[in-house]
Amino acid sequence: MSSQNGQFILNNIEKMYGENRALSSLSLCIQKGERIALIGPSGAGKSTLLNILAMIILPDSGEYWLDGKAASQYKAGRMRSRKVGIIRQQFDLVPALPVIHNVLAGRLGEWGFLKSLLSFFIPQDKILAIRALERVGLLDKLYEKTANLSGGQQQRAALARLLVQRPEIILADEPVASLDPARAEDIIAKLVQLVKEENQTLITSLHSVELAIKYFDRIIALKEGKLFFDHPTESVTDAMLTDLYQFMELNHDADNETSIS
Predict the structure, then answer these.
(1) How far is Cα 181 from Cα 34, in angstroms, rounded to an integer?
(2) In this structure, are 45 and 80 located in the same domain?
(3) Same domain as 86, residue 56
(4) Does pLDDT of 3 surpass 70?
(5) Range of the domain at 149
(6) Which CATH number is 124's domain given?
(7) Residue 186 lies in a domain
(8) Is 110 helix (H, G, I), strand (E, B) or coil?
(9) By percentage, how much of the chain surpasses pLDDT 90?
(10) Are residues 212 and 255 in the same domain?
(11) What total number of domains does the chain contain?
């Protein structure tokens, strides 16, 4: 399998959890610099796909190539942290630590053990954290305890952590699912802006179709672990979206009626 046609190449990826098939015969090609929204009903396999792309879990079968190398060649640590960064709904922050420490956690893949340990007492590369927090509008929270931040502010701190990590690729797994609509749009707009400025690749799973259409160039839809459609955003129709979500809703309603009868 050649990887010359894209930054990500997935060929016939399969992933099982017990008897549940999370991904089935999934093949994708993703180019460097693309901004992609990953949509689909709950349980469609979106998080599984992102975890495979992040090399957190391995597929059971199939090929995964990243920038010309088999994904298995990317070892944990500096090599992987330079390539891929991930941001999640839960933020992955340590609430008891000041914001600066959570932001500088983005540098742990670059630092050795002693520098990482020292940074818990005396923040290292402080200027990077200051610049990152300034870009996301949180400079005044530099030494604030992270637990005191609002949900939107915590997600901005997580964005700042990615800025100091500086990966080539950002994977975002439902990054705004816990936020109200106004704050969710604010975070997505900021994320897309930062990615454009850094010329990074962005793949974001979203429940909000509206945000996917407004901010992303390409939409990949999964359903029951399979690729349902993959189109430039302007080519996605209401009929496609209805087909993607409606059948699942009808099945759910039918199950409820069966359980009641």
Answers:
(1) 24
(2) no
(3) no
(4) no
(5) 76-167
(6) 3.40.50.300
(7) no
(8) coil
(9) 72
(10) yes
(11) 2
Closest CA to 43 of 243, 250, 225: 225
At 219-255, the pLDDT tens digits run 999 999 999 999 999 999 999 999 999 855 444 444 4
Rounded distance between C-alpha atoms, residue 123 and residue 120, angstroms: 6
Are 63 and 95 within one domain?
no
37 occurs within a structural domain: yes
Please indicate, yes or no, if residue 58 is contained in any of the structural domains.
Answer: yes
In a domain, 212, yes or no: yes
- Closest residue by Cα to residue 212 from 193, 195, 226, 233: 233
- Contacts of residue 172, defined as CB under 8 A and 6 or more positions apart, other chains included, come to 50, 86, 87, 88, 191, 202, 203, 204, 205
Structure tokens at 33: 């610099």
How many Å apart are CA 248 and CA 261, to the nearest integer?
Answer: 20
Last residue of a domain, one of 120, 144, 167: 167
pTM score of the predicted model: 0.86
- Tell me what pLDDT residue 27 has: 96
pLDDT at 90: 82
Please determine, for residue 4, whether its predicted confidence score (pLDDT) is greater than 70.
no
pLDDT of 34 higher than 90 = yes
At 6, list the tokens. 């894209």
Which segments of the chain are extended strands (E)? Answer: 8-17, 20-30, 35-39, 61-66, 69-70, 84-88, 169-173, 201-205, 218-223, 226-232
The answer to whether residues 97 and 108 touch, using CB atoms and an 8 Å cutoff, is no
Angle at 169 (CA atoms; ends 203, 166), nearest 5 degrees: 135
Q: Note the pLDDT of residue 1.
A: 41
